[in-house]
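Collaborator request, handled under Task 6.
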Amino acid sequence: MRKKEAIKGNPKQQDVLSLINERQATMSRGQRQIALYILNHYDRVGFMTASKLGAVVGVSESTVVRFAFELGYDGYPGLQRALQEIIRNRLTTVQRIEVANEQIGTGEVLDKVLNLDIDRIRRTLEETDRSTFKGAVDSILQANTIYIIGARSSASLARFLDYYFRLMFPTVKLVDAASTGEVFEQIMRIDEHDVIIGFSFPRYSKRTSSALHFATQNATKVIAITDSISSPLVRSADYFLQARSDMASFVDSMVAPLSLINALIVAIGLKKQDEMKKTFDRLEQIWDAYDVFDKSGGTNG
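C-alpha coordinates returned to the collaborator:
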Protein backbone atom coordinates (compact mmCIF):
# COMPACT_ATOMS: atom_id res chain seq x y z
CA MET A 1 0.00 0.00 0.00
CA ARG A 2 1.26 3.47 -0.84
CA LYS A 3 2.24 5.91 1.84
CA LYS A 4 -0.69 8.06 2.81
CA GLU A 5 -0.53 11.84 2.84
CA ALA A 6 -0.92 13.43 6.25
CA ILE A 7 -4.53 13.58 7.34
CA LYS A 8 -5.34 16.74 9.22
CA GLY A 9 -8.15 17.29 11.68
CA ASN A 10 -8.74 17.08 15.39
CA PRO A 11 -6.27 14.90 17.32
CA LYS A 12 -7.73 11.60 18.41
CA GLN A 13 -8.97 11.95 21.95
CA GLN A 14 -7.72 9.76 24.75
CA ASP A 15 -10.40 7.31 25.84
CA VAL A 16 -12.26 9.40 28.43
CA LEU A 17 -13.39 6.32 30.37
CA SER A 18 -9.78 5.18 30.86
CA LEU A 19 -8.88 8.71 31.92
CA ILE A 20 -11.65 8.75 34.52
CA ASN A 21 -10.52 5.36 35.86
CA GLU A 22 -6.94 6.62 36.20
CA ARG A 23 -7.95 9.78 38.09
CA GLN A 24 -10.55 8.34 40.45
CA ALA A 25 -8.14 7.88 43.36
CA THR A 26 -7.31 11.61 43.47
CA MET A 27 -10.87 12.87 43.10
CA SER A 28 -13.06 14.46 45.76
CA ARG A 29 -16.12 12.58 47.02
CA GLY A 30 -18.49 14.48 44.73
CA GLN A 31 -16.25 13.96 41.72
CA ARG A 32 -16.02 10.22 42.44
CA GLN A 33 -19.83 10.08 42.40
CA ILE A 34 -19.83 11.71 38.97
CA ALA A 35 -17.06 9.40 37.77
CA LEU A 36 -18.91 6.27 38.89
CA TYR A 37 -22.13 7.38 37.22
CA ILE A 38 -20.35 8.16 33.94
CA LEU A 39 -18.55 4.80 33.92
CA ASN A 40 -21.87 2.99 34.37
CA HIS A 41 -24.06 5.23 32.16
CA TYR A 42 -21.73 6.92 29.66
CA ASP A 43 -24.21 6.29 26.82
CA ARG A 44 -26.71 8.61 28.55
CA VAL A 45 -24.28 11.17 29.98
CA GLY A 46 -22.95 12.00 26.51
CA PHE A 47 -26.26 13.77 25.83
CA MET A 48 -27.09 15.11 29.30
CA THR A 49 -26.66 18.74 30.30
CA ALA A 50 -24.32 19.53 33.20
CA SER A 51 -27.27 20.52 35.38
CA LYS A 52 -29.15 17.28 34.57
CA LEU A 53 -26.07 15.16 35.38
CA GLY A 54 -25.58 17.03 38.63
CA ALA A 55 -29.22 16.50 39.63
CA VAL A 56 -29.07 12.77 38.84
CA VAL A 57 -25.83 12.26 40.78
CA GLY A 58 -26.72 14.59 43.66
CA VAL A 59 -24.07 17.28 43.20
CA SER A 60 -24.13 20.87 41.97
CA GLU A 61 -23.79 21.88 38.32
CA SER A 62 -20.57 23.72 39.18
CA THR A 63 -19.11 20.47 40.56
CA VAL A 64 -19.83 18.77 37.23
CA VAL A 65 -18.14 21.62 35.32
CA ARG A 66 -15.08 21.49 37.63
CA PHE A 67 -14.94 17.72 37.12
CA ALA A 68 -14.62 18.25 33.35
CA PHE A 69 -11.88 20.85 33.84
CA GLU A 70 -9.98 18.51 36.19
CA LEU A 71 -9.92 15.90 33.43
CA GLY A 72 -8.32 18.45 31.10
CA TYR A 73 -11.34 19.33 28.94
CA ASP A 74 -12.41 22.84 27.95
CA GLY A 75 -15.46 22.67 30.16
CA TYR A 76 -18.38 20.25 30.21
CA PRO A 77 -19.07 20.42 26.42
CA GLY A 78 -15.56 19.04 25.80
CA LEU A 79 -16.25 16.09 28.11
CA GLN A 80 -19.58 15.51 26.37
CA ARG A 81 -17.94 15.41 22.94
CA ALA A 82 -15.38 12.89 24.18
CA LEU A 83 -18.17 10.63 25.44
CA GLN A 84 -20.09 11.04 22.18
CA GLU A 85 -17.02 9.92 20.24
CA ILE A 86 -17.12 6.63 22.15
CA ILE A 87 -20.82 5.94 21.77
CA ARG A 88 -21.70 7.42 18.36
CA ASN A 89 -21.44 4.10 16.50
CA ARG A 90 -22.77 1.89 19.30
CA LEU A 91 -26.29 3.19 19.84
CA THR A 92 -29.16 1.21 18.38
CA THR A 93 -32.06 3.09 16.80
CA VAL A 94 -34.17 2.55 19.91
CA GLN A 95 -31.39 3.89 22.15
CA ARG A 96 -31.05 6.95 19.91
CA ILE A 97 -34.76 7.69 20.34
CA GLU A 98 -34.38 7.43 24.13
CA VAL A 99 -31.34 9.72 24.10
CA ALA A 100 -33.21 12.24 21.91
CA ASN A 101 -35.81 12.57 24.66
CA GLU A 102 -33.00 13.56 27.04
CA GLN A 103 -31.38 15.96 24.56
CA ILE A 104 -34.39 17.57 22.88
CA GLY A 105 -37.39 16.80 25.08
CA THR A 106 -40.92 17.69 24.03
CA GLY A 107 -40.72 21.49 24.27
CA GLU A 108 -39.71 23.81 21.44
CA VAL A 109 -38.54 21.06 19.07
CA LEU A 110 -38.20 23.40 16.08
CA ASP A 111 -35.95 25.83 17.95
CA LYS A 112 -33.88 23.05 19.52
CA VAL A 113 -33.28 21.07 16.31
CA LEU A 114 -32.43 24.11 14.17
CA ASN A 115 -30.09 25.51 16.81
CA LEU A 116 -28.33 22.14 17.07
CA ASP A 117 -27.88 22.16 13.28
CA ILE A 118 -26.49 25.71 13.40
CA ASP A 119 -23.95 24.50 15.97
CA ARG A 120 -22.97 21.57 13.75
CA ILE A 121 -22.28 23.89 10.82
CA ARG A 122 -20.23 26.19 13.06
CA ARG A 123 -18.15 23.28 14.37
CA THR A 124 -17.68 21.91 10.84
CA LEU A 125 -16.37 25.31 9.71
CA GLU A 126 -13.98 25.48 12.67
CA GLU A 127 -12.70 21.92 12.24
CA THR A 128 -12.23 21.79 8.46
CA ASP A 129 -8.56 22.13 7.56
CA ARG A 130 -8.26 24.57 4.65
CA SER A 131 -5.25 22.90 3.05
CA THR A 132 -7.00 19.50 3.20
CA PHE A 133 -10.09 21.03 1.58
CA LYS A 134 -7.95 22.56 -1.18
CA GLY A 135 -6.14 19.23 -1.70
CA ALA A 136 -9.48 17.45 -2.10
CA VAL A 137 -10.62 20.02 -4.66
CA ASP A 138 -7.38 19.65 -6.66
CA SER A 139 -7.62 15.84 -6.61
CA ILE A 140 -11.17 15.99 -7.97
CA LEU A 141 -10.15 18.40 -10.73
CA GLN A 142 -7.25 16.15 -11.78
CA ALA A 143 -9.17 12.84 -11.78
CA ASN A 144 -10.06 10.91 -14.91
CA THR A 145 -13.11 9.36 -13.26
CA ILE A 146 -14.86 10.49 -10.09
CA TYR A 147 -16.54 7.72 -8.07
CA ILE A 148 -19.08 8.67 -5.38
CA ILE A 149 -20.43 6.30 -2.74
CA GLY A 150 -22.79 6.65 0.20
CA ALA A 151 -25.07 4.05 1.79
CA ARG A 152 -28.34 4.31 3.68
CA SER A 153 -29.08 7.94 4.71
CA SER A 154 -25.72 9.03 3.24
CA ALA A 155 -26.97 7.92 -0.19
CA SER A 156 -28.90 11.19 -0.43
CA LEU A 157 -25.65 13.13 -0.08
CA ALA A 158 -23.97 10.98 -2.74
CA ARG A 159 -26.87 11.52 -5.16
CA PHE A 160 -26.82 15.30 -4.57
CA LEU A 161 -23.09 15.53 -5.31
CA ASP A 162 -23.48 13.21 -8.30
CA TYR A 163 -26.18 15.44 -9.80
CA TYR A 164 -23.97 18.54 -9.84
CA PHE A 165 -20.74 16.77 -10.71
CA ARG A 166 -22.39 15.26 -13.82
CA LEU A 167 -23.00 18.83 -14.98
CA MET A 168 -19.35 19.68 -14.35
CA PHE A 169 -17.35 16.57 -15.35
CA PRO A 170 -17.55 14.10 -18.26
CA THR A 171 -17.00 10.91 -16.24
CA VAL A 172 -18.76 10.57 -12.88
CA LYS A 173 -19.96 7.25 -11.45
CA LEU A 174 -22.43 7.00 -8.59
CA VAL A 175 -21.81 3.66 -6.89
CA ASP A 176 -24.97 1.82 -5.91
CA ALA A 177 -24.24 0.47 -2.42
CA ALA A 178 -27.25 -1.88 -2.39
CA SER A 179 -25.10 -5.01 -2.06
CA THR A 180 -21.45 -5.68 -1.29
CA GLY A 181 -20.82 -7.76 -4.40
CA GLU A 182 -22.27 -5.15 -6.72
CA VAL A 183 -20.15 -2.41 -5.12
CA PHE A 184 -16.91 -4.12 -6.14
CA GLU A 185 -18.20 -4.85 -9.62
CA GLN A 186 -18.85 -1.14 -10.09
CA ILE A 187 -15.40 -0.03 -8.93
CA MET A 188 -13.31 -2.93 -10.24
CA ARG A 189 -11.54 -0.71 -12.83
CA ILE A 190 -10.70 2.09 -10.42
CA ASP A 191 -7.03 3.13 -10.57
CA GLU A 192 -4.42 5.77 -9.68
CA HIS A 193 -5.87 8.27 -12.15
CA ASP A 194 -9.23 8.33 -10.39
CA VAL A 195 -10.70 9.67 -7.16
CA ILE A 196 -13.38 8.20 -4.92
CA ILE A 197 -15.50 10.26 -2.53
CA GLY A 198 -17.12 8.31 0.31
CA PHE A 199 -19.80 9.42 2.77
CA SER A 200 -20.66 7.66 6.01
CA PHE A 201 -22.00 8.71 9.40
CA PRO A 202 -22.95 6.71 12.50
CA ARG A 203 -23.78 3.97 12.29
CA TYR A 204 -21.02 3.56 9.73
CA SER A 205 -21.56 1.50 6.58
CA LYS A 206 -19.21 -1.47 6.11
CA ARG A 207 -19.83 -1.37 2.36
CA THR A 208 -18.58 2.20 2.10
CA SER A 209 -15.48 1.61 4.23
CA SER A 210 -14.71 -1.60 2.28
CA ALA A 211 -15.02 0.25 -1.04
CA LEU A 212 -12.60 2.94 0.11
CA HIS A 213 -10.15 0.31 1.32
CA PHE A 214 -10.35 -1.41 -2.08
CA ALA A 215 -9.62 1.94 -3.73
CA THR A 216 -6.45 2.40 -1.68
CA GLN A 217 -5.25 -1.00 -2.91
CA ASN A 218 -5.49 0.42 -6.42
CA ALA A 219 -3.61 3.64 -5.60
CA THR A 220 -6.76 5.76 -5.99
CA LYS A 221 -7.07 9.10 -4.23
CA VAL A 222 -9.66 8.77 -1.44
CA ILE A 223 -11.74 11.60 -0.02
CA ALA A 224 -13.66 10.68 3.15
CA ILE A 225 -16.52 12.93 4.23
CA THR A 226 -17.48 11.74 7.69
CA ASP A 227 -18.04 13.01 11.20
CA SER A 228 -15.01 11.95 13.23
CA ILE A 229 -11.32 11.05 13.09
CA SER A 230 -12.37 7.71 14.61
CA SER A 231 -14.62 6.90 11.63
CA PRO A 232 -13.51 3.74 9.76
CA LEU A 233 -13.45 5.76 6.51
CA VAL A 234 -10.52 7.82 7.76
CA ARG A 235 -8.17 4.82 7.71
CA SER A 236 -8.32 4.80 3.90
CA ALA A 237 -8.44 8.57 3.35
CA ASP A 238 -5.94 10.81 1.63
CA TYR A 239 -8.23 13.70 2.47
CA PHE A 240 -10.48 13.64 5.55
CA LEU A 241 -13.19 16.31 5.52
CA GLN A 242 -14.98 16.38 8.85
CA ALA A 243 -18.67 17.27 8.82
CA ARG A 244 -20.58 17.09 12.06
CA SER A 245 -23.67 14.88 12.21
CA ASP A 246 -24.44 14.43 15.90
CA MET A 247 -28.20 14.01 15.91
CA ALA A 248 -28.97 11.50 18.65
CA SER A 249 -32.45 10.59 17.44
CA PHE A 250 -33.34 8.09 14.70
CA VAL A 251 -33.03 10.98 12.17
CA ASP A 252 -29.53 11.64 10.84
CA SER A 253 -28.78 15.35 10.61
CA MET A 254 -27.13 15.96 7.21
CA VAL A 255 -27.17 19.77 7.33
CA ALA A 256 -23.44 20.24 7.97
CA PRO A 257 -22.34 17.54 5.46
CA LEU A 258 -24.57 19.14 2.82
CA SER A 259 -23.03 22.56 3.50
CA LEU A 260 -19.57 21.06 3.08
CA ILE A 261 -20.64 19.47 -0.22
CA ASN A 262 -21.95 22.85 -1.39
CA ALA A 263 -18.57 24.38 -0.59
CA LEU A 264 -16.82 21.67 -2.66
CA ILE A 265 -19.13 22.24 -5.62
CA VAL A 266 -18.71 26.02 -5.51
CA ALA A 267 -14.91 25.79 -5.10
CA ILE A 268 -14.65 23.49 -8.12
CA GLY A 269 -17.07 25.63 -10.11
CA LEU A 270 -14.88 28.69 -9.54
CA LYS A 271 -11.88 26.76 -10.86
CA LYS A 272 -13.84 25.80 -14.00
CA GLN A 273 -15.67 29.08 -14.62
CA ASP A 274 -15.11 29.38 -18.37
CA GLU A 275 -16.03 25.76 -18.98
CA MET A 276 -19.08 26.00 -16.74
CA LYS A 277 -20.37 29.08 -18.59
CA LYS A 278 -20.24 27.16 -21.88
CA THR A 279 -21.87 24.10 -20.30
CA PHE A 280 -24.77 26.01 -18.78
CA ASP A 281 -25.25 28.13 -21.89
CA ARG A 282 -25.73 24.88 -23.81
CA LEU A 283 -28.00 23.48 -21.07
CA GLU A 284 -30.17 26.61 -21.09
CA GLN A 285 -30.74 26.10 -24.81
CA ILE A 286 -31.67 22.43 -24.24
CA TRP A 287 -33.94 23.23 -21.30
CA ASP A 288 -35.70 25.93 -23.31
CA ALA A 289 -36.03 23.78 -26.44
CA TYR A 290 -37.55 20.86 -24.55
CA ASP A 291 -39.63 22.98 -22.16
CA VAL A 292 -37.98 21.48 -19.05
CA PHE A 293 -39.02 24.16 -16.56
CA ASP A 294 -42.43 25.53 -15.67
CA LYS A 295 -42.26 29.20 -16.69
CA SER A 296 -45.50 30.18 -14.98
CA GLY A 297 -43.92 30.64 -11.56
CA GLY A 298 -40.42 31.27 -10.18
CA THR A 299 -37.20 30.92 -12.11
CA ASN A 300 -35.65 28.07 -10.09
CA GLY A 301 -36.12 24.37 -10.94
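The cover message to the collaborator said: "Residues 109-127 form the longest helix (19 residues). The first strand starts at residue 146 and ends at 150. Please let us know whether this matches your experimental observations."
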